[in-house]
Amino acid sequence: MKFPIAKNSLFAILLRSPWWISILIAAGIVAAARLALPELYAFAFFAALPFIVIGCVAGWRQLRAPSAARVAGTLEAVRAMSWGDFSSALTDALHDDGYAVTRLTGAAADFELAKAGRISLVACKRWKAARTGVDPLRDLFDAKRTREAHECIYVATGEITDGARAFALERSIRLIHGAELAKLLPRVRSTQPL
């Protein structure tokens, strides 16, 4: 079972930060507790334990995150693909993540995903666009309401404008680009040396 965590909570911020920050906070808590309560040294460990766990989780995530070179190589390779190759690679990756994928016809969404009773719409036909604005996201959101889907996902390799990011955040549209796209498509690599 996955527990939701508020995006601006201390633990969510620490999960997005470098791992050593959480460990440094834990060390500070241990030092402060040892100074304030020297006879209760076990308290210091238990007070710091959540920060140690968060540091370990953040470190594990950062260890598994794709490097900048890998992200650049994947994006270059994806931009060079035809629609057929890209849609097949994306479909395979989504199948590997446990989704049932159905191709859709229409301009707003390209795939419908089903997993654990939840329906998601994916728009990715404009993956090569150098810059994504609000319009394709608005179309995707309208398709979500029409099809009564639970979530929207937009896939892009280019820049996403600030307005589009704000629109996506406001309407809970998940944007997959950059490192997240490289993680989703691990087998796609550029054939040219970096």
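(the above was protein one; protein two follows)
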Amino acid sequence: MSIIDDALKANRNYAKSHDRKLAQRPAPRIAVVTCMDPRLSNLPAILGLPQADIDVIRTGGPAVTDDVLGELIVSNRVLGTTEIMLLNHTGCGFTTFTDEELNAKLAAATGDASPTPMRFFSYKDPEQHTREQIKKVRSHPWIAKDVAVRGFVFDMETGLLSEVESVLRPTAA
């Protein structure tokens, strides 16, 4: 049996005790953009928040792409989230290559360079990357200005979050 077949079998068991209240419209309080890395899958435990309060947006890097911006806008303007957390982490696979290197490697491995240059959103410094992502979110005109946009790096060794200060962070008047 494949992993997908195993998952389908497990789903049939899950459905027997599925909470039908989950069919109601979600009302998360915070949008969290985080990496697709499976080590970041237990956000309720990492953040100490109920699953229902977290609108999770997973992306490689985690890069705030146009698609992610669209999801954040829906999260904020349609679902009603009032805060945005950008959650990078140490030991991210996207720091182990450059876009150029991966394009070259894949073109050589497949013999097909037609998709290049593909954008993978690789980066080297998680803190600088977080600052760039905060700036990208904060500068979008459809993200409400009263929505807090904060960035963090999760340390895979310690399990602790470190806040990354943004140059755009509002100051007290």
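Reviewer note on protein two: The two ends are 62 Å apart (CA to CA).
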